Amino acid sequence: MKRRTVLRGLGGLAISLPLLDAMRGSSARAGAPVYPKRFIVMYTPNGTIAKNFWPTNVKSETDFQLAPILAPLAAHKDDLLIVGGVDMLSAMAPNEGGSNPGDAHQKGTGQCLTATELLPGNFLGGGGQSAGWAGGISVDQEIAKHIGQDTLYRSLELGVAVMGANVGGRIAYRGPGQPLPPENSPYAAYQRLFGDSLGDPVEIAQRVARRESVLDVVADDYKKLRDRLGSEDREKLHNHLLGIDAIRDRLDKAVVQFDGACQPLDLGQVIDVNKVENMPVIGGLQMDLLAMALACDLTRVATFMWTNSTSGAVYSFVDPEIKDGHHGLAHKGDEDTKKVHHNTLVNTWFASQLASLIDRLKAIPEGDGTVFDNTVIVWTNEQARGNNHDRHDLPYVIAGSAGGFFKTGRYVEFGGDTSHTHLLITLLHSMGVEVEEFGNPVYGTGPLTGLT
How far is residue 5 from each of residues 101, 338, 451, measured CA to CA in Å? Predict the structure, then answer.
């Protein structure tokens, strides 16, 4: 039984119910509950420092030491799958005849989740290059198409200090040229997620009832009109009514019944979301919101962007000695040991944020385990190394097994030109989307072997 079926059976009471056995199928009623899977992407920009990122003292896939950047994830080492040797081949193809426009950062950001060449456009990049938006759907949205129907939000896009409405500030795409902007403000995101659920219960019920009543009147009027229309207009009207029904479905689920781990949040005093020095607080609030959205089953798919490609954010809150913007740090040569150290500190801080997100999900009980047990988080980047715009051997970290799909606690390396399209297809499989192609199939089809 689908969640929306239960909601409609309640007469449109607009309550976001906890997951019931009736919604999980026969296996749940037979004593084996099946909990929903969740998919999260965490993006950080400008590459990493390879020597301080990849595991050291590697004796086997399971016997290795975490390098300094990944050290904050030590408590979760058994839940990690560190994937090496994967290349973003689609973003390295030459721009011959305008078929693969954009500079290295534009290609890397727009293709990290789409594996599809960028569209032509007027977003100016480095070296006189320019590009438009990505030319295909992103993996998160492909997953949302399959698992997002029964939640209030198909997906959730959050950001921290993401600047610029251009290809360098977008990773999620509904389709070709259809970017989904991340929400930088936890206050706006909270209102969007829980606004209908906050306040006096009687006022909430009256507000929802008024909206339902308006939709009922509109629907009745259109139905009366339908018999007076020709076939073409009738088709247009039918499509419009489908849109009204979609709005009704959203209203049916728009009020959250707070219970258990699903509780309102105290966001504290409002602070400026555009100040870089506020990133730790804003990022923490955004992760709180993301965890709560999963606990309340408002969505099962999310992307989380820490700034944007070529971001000049100065991470002096990580270390007061850091004076250079992140993009500038990433471009320093390996011989500049002080700047390499600073860049290492920045990326280590990003790893600590991933650890913090994992902590939050592990704190949410679900059955005999936690929400994290049924989640997979993918940490991605648009570059491997920022000082040479390299997109070979991208720094991928998978956290969580997606309900046992991935075999974690390992460092797995691939050889040759292993396209990241294979990794995206593997992620689709982990969420039950059985496809053999994603993105541009020229760069590879089928999943990676040895991860499951």
Answer: 46, 60, 36
